[in-house]
Design a protein that fits this description.
It is a single chain. This protein is α/β, with parallel strands linked by helices. It contains 11 helices and 7 strands. It folds into 2 domains: 115 residues, Leucine-rich Repeat Variant, CATH 1.25.10.10; 144 residues, Rossmann fold (3-Layer(aba) Sandwich), CATH 3.40.50.
C-alpha cells in the first residue's frame, strides 16, 4: 500500500551585502485611531489580490522591515501571515517595534495567523509597552489565538536524525533544527524519547508518533554571479507503539550568495547552515497535514 507523500515547497534565501538599506519610517499618527478599519481594508485587498499573495517570501520579509512606505510594510506583514510563513516569525517579531501603529498591528495579526507559539513572548512584550488601544487590541487578539494553539493534540518523539549529506559538521545543527521546528507545530508536544512519548500519551489519552529525519543531500553549485547550496530533507512518520509507518514528508531549499561575498570557509559554512535550516522549514510545512492524518 502506497504511503502518503508530501513535498515541501522550494525556499530560496539570498544573502545580501553588508550595507543595510536605509528605512525611513513614515505615516501619520492620526491614522492610529482608524487602524482597525484600515487594516480590515488592507486584509481584504491582500485576500483579493493573488499577485500580493504570490510575492517572494524573501522580498516580503525585507519589505516588512525596510520599506519606506508604511503601507508596503503593512501589506508585506499581512501577506506573510496569509502564507503562514514560519520563517517570517523573526522579521514579524521585529516589526512589532515599528514606528507606525498600523505596521505593529499588522505584524501581530500575521503572527496570530502563522500560529507559531514561540512568538508569544515577543507579542507580550510589545503589548505591555504599547500605548495605542487599537494596536494593543490586535496584539491581545493574536495572543488569544496563539494560546488556543498550545493545547496538546499529539505527542511526538524525534527518535532518529541521520545526516547522509557527507558534511558531518551540520549534524548537530540539523538535529536541533528538526526538534525546534517540530515543536512549533500547533498541537504538537515533543517528548525526549519514544518511551517517554508512549508513557505520557497513555497517561493523557493522546495519540503518539515517532519521527525519523534524514538530511539526504547537500550540494554546491554556481549560477551566474551566485554560489548556491541546495539541501534536501526527508521525514518519516511512524505511529507508536505499533511502529507502523504512516507518511513521508520531503523538503528542499537553496541558499544563495554572491560568489564575491564568499571570502572564506566560514562564509560557506554559514550558507550551508542557511540551506539546512530552510530545508527543514520546508519539510515542516507539510508535516501538520501528515501528522493529523497519521493520528487517525
Amino acid at each position: 500500500m502506497a504511503l502518503p507523500r508530501q513535498s515541501g515547497s522550494l525556499i530560496e534565501r539570498r544573502a545580501v551585502s553588508s550595507a543595510k538599506p536605509s528605512s525611513a519610517r513614515s505615516g501619520s499618527r492620526g491614522l492610529l485611531g482608524r487602524v482597525v478599519a484600515w487594516l480590515a481594508l488592507i486584509v481584504l485587498v491582500v485576500a483579493l489580490t493573488p499577485a500580493a499573495f504570490a510575492q517572494d517570501v524573501t522580498q516580503l520579509k525585507k519589505d516588512v522591515l525596510t520599506a519606506s512606505d508604511f503601507r508596503v510594510r503593512v501589506t508585506a506583514a499581512l501577506a506573510l501571515g496569509k502564507k503562514k510563513e514560519l520563517s517570517a516569525v523573526g522579521a514579524l517579531s521585529q516589526a512589532l517595534k515599528d514606528d507606525n501603529g498600523a505596521v505593529r498591528a499588522a505584524a501581530a495579526a500575521a503572527l496570530g495567523l502563522i500560529g507559531d507559539t514561540s512568538a508569544m513572548s515577543a507579542i507580550e512584550r510589545a503589548r505591555d509597552s504599547e500605548k495605542d488601544a487599537n494596536v494593543k487590541s490586535s496584539m491581545e487578539k493574536a495572543l488569544s489565538t496563539l494560546k488556543g494553539q498550545r493545547k496538546t493534540k499529539v505527542i511526538v518523539s524525534v527518535s532518529r536524525t541521520e545526516n547522509k549529506s557527507g558534511e558531518p559538521k551540520v549534524s548537530s545543527l540539523f538535529t536541533s533544527a528538526i526538534k525546534s521546528e517540530i515543536g512549533r507545530i500547533p498541537g504538537v508536544e515533543v517528548a525526549p524519547s519514544e518511551k517517554d512519548a508512549v508513557e505520557q500519551a497513555k497517561q493523557r489519552n493522546l495519540p503518539t508518533l515517532a519521527l525519523d529525519a534524514k538530511l539526504t543531500s547537500l550540494s554546491k553549485s554556481t549560477s551566474g554571479a551566485d554560489t548556491a547550496i541546495a539541501a534536501n530533507v526527508e521525514l518519516l512518520i511512524r505511529k507508536i507503539p505499533e511502529q507502523s509507518l504512516k507518511a513521508t514528508v520531503k523538503g528542499n531549499a537553496k541558499a544563495l550568495m554572491n560568489s564575491k561575498a564568499l571570502k572564506n570557509d566560514a562564509d560557506v559554512a554559514a550558507l550551508r547552515e542557511d540551506a539546512v535550516k530552510a530545508a527543514v522549514q520546508s519539510a515542516i510545512k507539510g508535516a501538520p497535514t501528515a501528522i493529523d492524518a497519521a493520528t487517525k
